[in-house]
Amino acid sequence: MKIDLLANDKLRQTIREGYGTIAQTDTSCCSGVSCCGSNAADSERLAKHVGYSAEELAALPEGANLGLSCGNPTALASLQPGEVVLDLGAGAGFDVFIAGRKVGPTGRAIGVDMTPEMLAKARQNLPAYCERSGYSNVEFRLGEIEHLPVADNSVDVIISNCVINLSPDKQQVWKEMARVLKPGGRVAISDLALLRPLPAGVKDMVEALVGCVAGAALVEDTGRMVREAGLTDIRLNSKKHYVDVMTDSEDPLYRKIVDHLEPGTGPGDYITSLEVTAVKR
Of 5, 27, 62, 91, which one's alpha carbon is 20 to 30 angstroms from that of 98? Predict the structure, then answer.
């Protein structure tokens, strides 16, 4: 398949600008509860809904939770003390700081993000994390998830939370995961995926792109890309209740999506939260 590099660069720039705004304002492109960000109270409510504990959230540095989750990959990964964990699209450090506590002082948590404003916010949160946890086991690196600034065969676990859908070259992301994982290493991904193709009106919405919807891949295409990257023991678990919560919450983005759908259908007929786990042989 021919890759349009210019179009991909434009797409990345649109996403970088959108998430840069979220990092600087602590609010989303569309406000309310959404994958594209939310206010503090809604962010905490969403995080609890997808499985984060009150204790985990209370231990976070202020501003680390921007309401960008659509699942809980740190729980899905069953992280163990001493492991090296890599978070793709780390944002303000939400999952990295939680992972750092789980892997402990002998482990390491690395966050990669392509948005300088997000990276700056995450690094500003580092002193608070170190003081509260007593660990110095977290770092953040600037880079694209299609070209990870990480050595071959160096990571035990890869996590990601509602990010891969944003990539214009998802197959390359999965290949990079396979490259940096140690043999026997595993991935635990939470992302938005499609049960069927979106109507053109939704795919053309910039808000839906930054809000993790317009760029999402079909569930079956996700499974294919994971297999083609060489990973095994693949499990895909669709969790449609996340989208139902977004719809019921009257989130502005999801209200706009409803306006573009076929009569008699809702966002949950098209979009799902998808857990993906796999292993490198």
Answer: 27
